[in-house]
Design a protein that fits this description.
Length: 729
């Protein structure tokens, strides 16, 4: 009998199949709820057979020659693999699902239709199919050996023998999967006659098959279990009341508590209490900003490090770069690059029990972006922690709420909605849409005792108060000045920095490497001038704050950068009555006016007072414009969900997803040559350090003026870059 290879490194077809099947027991533990949720009791049997047959087409002589010589075969092995589904003894629907999962596990059905259609009968596509099918004959003995091994494989990895197949005697017993399964499926989709296969059954079957294949090919044959008794790894022994209540809460819940109350640990205890199996369902920790995610990734990694494995994955647009920068501090460049790529790749797979990510990394699956079935499969029965939920605009809130509702309704998900300050109307929307009754809160009496800030409103703008700010800087206080726009922050820094021995500027229009350098040096800074970027996740604690006016929820986040731990008594926070002339592009003017009107001089801000002010400012709910955006987006996204079906990748829908992002990465002209040289050397992470994110409106404005053009595949902006001030536009 000839040996059939599955990989160019010499791994045999049976070896690769066993590696894929070895992941099945862990999947059955983690996703035990799947058969009930999708309405298919023998779901894991179907997955077993899909894994078994997914690469059988590689036994074709032409494919084996391709492995040996490296010359293209010109055909898809999955088409031949899926032909084996006709040997299964299930009903028509189950056989179709298994065949479709196998035939599409590398390329979607639209691609196969364009390249490998076997209809019309007698056409060149059908003839090509049968010519390729006969190439299995040379290795037919090996394939029969594989089929004969099914009982032993099933006992080892499934736990029993399903006996739902027959062993083929020859190639002629295989059945054209394109003709008998792909075409009917596409016709049903076109006619909107959806069946069980078009729903989560098909999604999860394809997703888990792909997951097993990817993990096995990446050298992983098991899933990492969640951390047991996670409280053992907390940096404290005694639980606060909020944390104890979270640990006892079952099902979805709200949690509202101020910074410093241990919400993160409470959320992890809630997740542990809601996990049903020993290995544990997957936990998704969703945050709105990359900086928040980086900080949470470090925190969760520290908590789980003692458990012995790399339990935490991180997903956002710059995750691989962030991992590289962290690793580069310990390893040489080559080792850091390789390890960062490996970690980023594993983060996208069904491997680690905890994922820290942006909502957009989840939403990409619900827009049908490539690989969506695998990501959706991982969400089945999972636990979702939505932190800092207050930070989203109306559009993103509509997307997140619609997605969360579907996760609860179809995926058996449980959700925890968390925030330090949350307008009552937002809370009511989530509670009503997600049917959440449980609310974890800190009692008002306790909140009344937490007073960290005293508010004063200063007439005029920061320019009108230069003497006051400068005096505080010169008396040795650590002063934080926050402006609403980058240009205002750059201007304020130039004006104020001379009064301090050590000053820094921080905003979004800096290169990645410049911003990193500033953030790492903040501990020794006496004066920090910044924009809203300091509102989230930076571990800073200043003595005094001067800030331009903003809505109450944004101001509260800014307050949190001063007297962060309450160890400085009651710290002053000064709010200028006037902001900049471009602030209305960022914040709703009415909300800002309401906020400033509430803030009286000498006001002591207790945590309970914060919530009262938030509710008063947002008493009317969304503005008319935001309400219209919310309703329109929620309706459109709900309708879109009906069109996202397994095995098909719709480029048009994926393009809608990428339009959600309102920023573009550009490279300042003075770094362009260096950037391109690094790309040509394959040093992609180092090149990324020169990128600057700018808003979409500004991008189009600069491009219209001829200040941005594409060079060698990158957007180059013709604007000066200052090593202290950042991009000057």
């Amino acid at each position: 009998m000839l040996t059939v290879k599955a990989k160019s490194d010499g791994e045999t077809l049976l070896e690769h199949t066993e590696k894929c099947l070895a992941i099945l027991p862990g999947i059955m533990d983690v996703f035990a709820v799947m058969p009930r949720l999708c309405g298919v009791p023998d779901f894991f049997e179907h997955l077993f057979y899909a894994i078994f047959i997914h690469d059988l087409g590689k036994a074709a002589a032409g494919w084996q020659q391709f492995l040996a010589e490296g010359r293209s075969w010109g055909y898809r092995h999955e088409v031949l693999s899926a032909a084996h589904a006709g040997l299964l003894l299930y009903d028509k629907e189950a056989i179709q699902a298994i065949a479709l999962a196998v035939i599409s596990h590398h390329r979607d059905l639209y691609y196969l239709r364009s390249r490998h259609a076997t209809l019309p009968v007698g056409g060149p596509g059908e003839q090509d199919y049968y010519d390729r099918l006969t190439q299995l004959t040379k290795n037919w003995g090996y394939l029969q050996m594989m089929w004969d091994n099914i009982p032993a494989l099933a006992r080892r990895y499934l736990g029993y023998e399903p006996g739902r197949h027959r062993v083929p005697g020859s190639v002629t017993e295989l059945k054209d999967a394109y003709r008998y399964h792909v075409v009917p499926y596409l016709n049903q989709y076109r006619e909107e006659e959806m069946g069980l296969v078009h729903g989560v059954y098909g999604l999860w079957l394809k997703g888990l098959l792909t997951a097993c294949d990817h993990l096995a090919s990446g050298g992983r044959t098991s899933l990492i279990p969640s951390v047991e008794e996670i409280q053992r790894y907390f940096p404290f022994k005694k639980l606060k009341k909020l944390q104890w209540c979270a640990a006892k809460t079952r099902g979805s819940a709200f949690m509202v508590a101020p910074t410093g109350f241990g919400k993160t640990e409470a959320a992890l205890l809630w997740a542990e209490g809601n996990q049903k199996s020993d290995i544990g369902e997957r936990v998704f920790y969703i945050l709105p900003y990359n900086a928040s995610i980086n900080a949470m990734y470090r925190r969760l990694s520290r908590i789980t490090a003692s458990a012995g494995e790399d339990h935490v994955a991180m997903l956002h647009g710059r995750a691989a770069y962030y991992l590289y920068r962290e690793l580069a501090e310990k390893d040489d460049e080559s080792a850091a690059v390789q390890r960062a790529r490996k970690m980023a790749s594993l983060s996208r797979k069904i491997y680690q029990p905890y994922k820290v990510l942006t909502p957009f990394q989840m939403l990409r699956a619900f827009f049908g972006v490539k690989g969506f079935e695998q990501h959706m499969a991982e969400m089945a029965g999972a636990l979702f922690i939505f932190d800092e939920i207050h930070a989203y605009d109306a559009r993103t809130t509509a997307l997140v709420l619609t997605m969360a509702a579907r996760l609860k309704r179809e995926f058996g998900a449980r959700v925890l909605i968390m925030s330090a300050t949350l307008p009552a109307f937002i809370k009511d929307m989530f509670k009503n849409e997600l049917f959440i009754e449980t609310e974890l809160v800190v009692h008002k009496e306790e909140l009344d005792r937490i007073i960290r800030h005293r508010v004063e409103v200063l007439p005029g703008s920061w320019r009108d108060n230069l003497d006051v700010i400068t005096q505080d800087i010169r008396t040795g206080k650590k002063v934080l000045v926050i402006c609403n726009t980058v240009s205002a922050a750059q201007d304020a820094y130039c004006t104020l920095s001379g009064a301090a021995r050590n000053a820094a500027l921080l905003h979004s229009r800096m290169t990645l490497q410049h911003r990193e350098r500033v953030e790492k040096a903040l501990a020794g800074v006496e004066l920090l001038v910044a924009t809203q970027v300091v509102e989230v996740s930076l571990d800073i604690d200043f003595d005094i704050l001067y800030t331009e006016p903003a809505p109450i929820d944004a101001l509260v986040q800014r307050f949190g950068r001063v007297n962060r731990y309450g160890s400085k008594g009651v710290a002053p926070v000064f709010i200028f009555a006037n902001g900049g002339k471009y602030d209305h592009y960022i914040y709703n003017s009415d909300l800002v006016k309401k906020t400033v009107g509430l803030l009286k001089d000498g006001l002591l801000v207790s945590e309970s007072k914060v919530q009262e002010m938030v509710d008063e400012v947002y008493q009317g709910g969304y503005t008319a414009d935001d309400r219209q955006i919310f309703t329109m987006v929620a309706k459109h996204f709900s309708n879109l969900q009906k069109e996202i079906v397994p095995f098909i990748e719709e480029r048009e829908k994926a393009e809608q997803f990428y339009k959600l992002f309102d920023r573009v990465e550009v490279v300042p002209c003075e770094f362009a040559e260096q950037y391109i040289d690094l790309l040509q050397q394959g040093r992609f992470f180092q090149a990324m350090g020169f990128e600057v994110p700018i808003g979409l409106k500004r991008f189009h404005s600069l491009r219209h003026k001829g200040l941005i053009e594409k060079k060698h595949g990158i957007w180059v902006v013709a604007a000066p870059y200052d090593n202290e001030l950042g991009l000057m536009v």
